[in-house]
Amino acid sequence: MLSVNSTKSVFCTFLVTGIPGLEDLYIWISIPFCAMFLITIVGNMTIIIVIWREQPLHVPMYLFLAMLAASDLGLSLFTFPTMLRIFLLAARELTTSACFTQMFFIHTFQDLESAIILAMAFDRYVAISCPLHYHSILTNTVIARIGLAIVVRTFTVQLPLPILLGRLNFCYSNVLSHSYCLHPDIIKLSCSNTRVNSIFGLFVVLSTMGLDFLLILLSYILILKTVLSMASHSGRLKSLNTCISHLCAVVLFFTPMICLSMLHRFGPRLPSYVYVTLANMHFLIPPVMNPIVYVMKTKQIRDKIKKLYTIKTTVKAHATSIS
């Protein structure tokens, strides 16, 4: 903590917060969080490896799913470890540079996931509306360009955030209200003028996740219009069934975020653990649930996973018998 004008103190570290009011239960709370982290790593890595190794899965739907698994993996690697440090080691302190770095990567992977979910909505729209031209529209080149555009957009809007934070002083408090560093949470603690940071932060949210959500809604309106125009009842059900996994991903990602935003702006003042829980649901639940949902709902993925593990088991048994 540095002294400024002998009347204020500028903090050089931040203290992240666990779940307020449940400090005595942190050891027990850490057990489900450790399990969730393990499921996230194993589930998303399995999907990435299976899609990478299996040539029949090198089609638009599964390539976008691999991108989603990669973004989920990145998001979990920058959220779960910090929470587990709090629960298991009572380690709350982060340096300013570590906090800004964590904030950058959390928001980067958050925006990447939002954009990938939008790309997957476009994939479903093309598959249902133009099934005969699906592979000619979504070629590998087009998918690569979509992936590049997602990465460029995300880094373009996210890179200025830590740079703009670097000019601020933090002297009101250094205690963050979440278990990881988030941009709105950090700027609340600044005693400098944060007008530019607030305006740019709002612009980033509206131009990324806000715009993505509206375009996803538009995609599903067009999909519903196409499905309702189909003559066959079985055709309608089959088309809608291909969207269930993606709809689950949309609900898991956007619902906690919208609820949290509405509560902050229009809802009654609730205990702090309610806001912390909703934030945790937004950042932690999608990486855990997305691989589970896609494995359960996608037969091709299930079959390839079974094939992969059957081959490994056979090779291991063969090696054991030789030795």
Structure description:
The model is unreliable at 3-7 (pLDDT under 50). This protein has 323 residues and is mainly α. A hairpin with a 3-residue loop joins strand 1 and strand 2. It has a single domain (13-309), classed as Rhopdopsin 7-helix transmembrane proteins, CATH 1.20.1070.10. It has 13 helices and 4 strands. It is globular and about 65 Å long. Helix content is 74%, strand content 4%. The N and C termini lie far apart (62 Å). The strands form 2 sheets. A two-stranded antiparallel ribbon has the order 1-2. Strands 3-4 form a two-stranded antiparallel sheet. It is a multi-pass membrane protein. Belongs to the G-protein coupled receptor 1 family. Keywords: Cell membrane, G-protein coupled receptor, Membrane, Olfaction, Receptor, Sensory transduction, Transducer, Transmembrane, Transmembrane helix. It is found in: Cell membrane; Membrane. One of its GO terms (cellular component) is plasma membrane.
Structural class: mainly alpha
Shape: globular
Task: Report the biggest beta sheet as strand number plus sense, adding barrel if it closes.
Answer: 2 strands, antiparallel
CATH superfamily: Rhodopsin 7-helix transmembrane proteins
CATH architecture name: Up-down Bundle
Mean pLDDT: 87
Kindly provide the name of the CATH class: Mainly Alpha
The neighbouring-strand order within the major sheet is: 1-2
Membrane topology: Multi-pass membrane protein
Pfam families: 7tm_4
Protein name: Olfactory receptor
Main location: membrane
